[in-house]
Design a protein that fits this description.
Strand content: 25-35%
CATH class of the largest domain: Alpha Beta
Largest sheet: 6 strands, antiparallel
Mean pLDDT: 97
CATH topology of the largest domain: Rossmann fold
Number of domains: 2
CATH architecture of the largest domain: 3-Layer(aba) Sandwich
Distance between the termini: 40 Å
Number of helices: 9
CATH superfamily of the largest domain: SGNH hydrolase
Low-confidence stretches: none
Order of helices and strands: HEEEHHEEEEEEEEEHHEEHHEHEH
Radius of gyration: 19 Å
Structural class: alpha/beta
Helix content: 25-40%
Shape: globular
Length: 325
């Protein structure tokens, strides 16, 4: 049996909206229309808006198989894409390509007899669209229940650069740990910008994580950084006054000993801490204590964690969040 749009919506988490293309593909949107508009003048950032970072299926079922067709569109500067499949909490599949010239395919998931939980993590750095989603006839399907709603915002590291296993990027990892329906609105290359907060978004998060700053330190002037910090946190705290907000200062980077137009790396982190700490509903977490200071844990040897680096990042971040959640 083929799944209807309503059924797909019920088992999908991490998408604010699902639409159907003219040729029958389900298109998953993690951004609001206002956020698409906010990024429309930056071609690279707008492209990243369409990546399916944080989107997943999560449900219980007694089917013998699930299969679907997919096509892949660019969603970042990276050229790989992968789906992760979990059965009853155990990874049982990892499908994709290291070279995006293979942009179409089919995934079939087969299960032993009985009722099982199935979770399908979508690619973080590409846009995955699905069609012909079908289960074995007579199958029962029940969406997983989530305890919390979570919003993750930030730059490339939060979007998932360079996790080849999307289930291991820290945003997905912490969402699973706290059983949260998580929307990931991170955009590679992004900086603090009040315009990138949609105060009218229908999704009302219990928890928000904010992780910008490394790109600001690399390219912003001190004056612009101070102005954007002030405007960003004032708007965030006001419009999400009922949310628990956690600001993660930039994680360690191998070239952090440079002095930029903004100042030193430590100065940038301190400025974020000082501004965010003015608000009662914001807690600051020191990002420099969350990841290893060994190049081998970074895909580019300096900034973006690899899968191993994300695993450690997630473990340490969860320990910090547990103090407050």
């Amino acid at each position: 049996m083929f799944l209807s749009l309503d059924c797909v919506r019920e088992i999908t988490f991490g998408a604010l909206e699902i639409t159907v293309s003219n040729d029958g593909f389900f298109v998953f949107h993690r951004m609001t229309k206002e956020l698409y508009k906010a990024y429309q003048n930056n071609e690279g950032s707008l492209l990243r808006c369409y990546a399916t970072s944080g989107v997943k299926f999560d449900f219980f079922t007694d089917f013998s198989y699930l299969k679907f067709d997919f096509r892949i569109k660019e969603g970042s500067s990276r050229n790989f894409y992968y789906f992760d499949i979990y059965t009853d909490g155990i990874m049982t599949g990892h499908y994709g390509e290291s070279d995006m010239w293979i942009k179409n395919g089919e995934i079939k998931i087969e299960l032993p007899e009985g009722r099982h939980r199935v979770t399908v993590y979508f690619p973080c750095l590409a846009a995955a669209e699905l069609r012909n989603i079908s289960l074995s006839d007579g199958s029962e399907i029940t969406p997983a229940k989530k305890k919390l709603k979570m919003l993750c915002v930030g730059d490339s590291i939060t979007q998932g650069y360079d996790a080849e296993y999307p289930s291991l990027c820290y945003a997905n990892f912490i969402a699973d740990e706290f059983n949260a329906d998580m929307v990931n609105q991170a955009i590679g290359g992004d900086r603090f910008n009040p315009e990138h907060i949609d105060a009218n978004m229908s999704f009302s998060p219990d928890i928000i994580t904010v992780a910008y700053g490394t790109n600001d330190w690399s390219g912003a002037t001190r004056e612009n950084f101070e102005r954007n910090l002030t405007g960003y946190f004032a708007k965030l705290a006001e419009h999400f006054s009922k949310s628990k907000i956690f600001v993660i200062t930039p994680i360690w980077r191998a070239d952090g000993n440079r002095v930029t137009k903004l100042g030193t790396f430590d100065e940038a982190c301190a400025m974020i801490d000082a501004e965010a700490s003015k608000y009662k509903n914001i807690t600051v977490i020191d990002g420099t204590k969350l990841t290893p200071r060994v190049n081998a844990f970074y895909s580019d040897l300096r900034l973006h964690p690899n899968d191993m680096g994300y695993a450690i990042y997630s473990k340490n971040l969860i320990a910090e969040l547990r103090k407050y959640i």
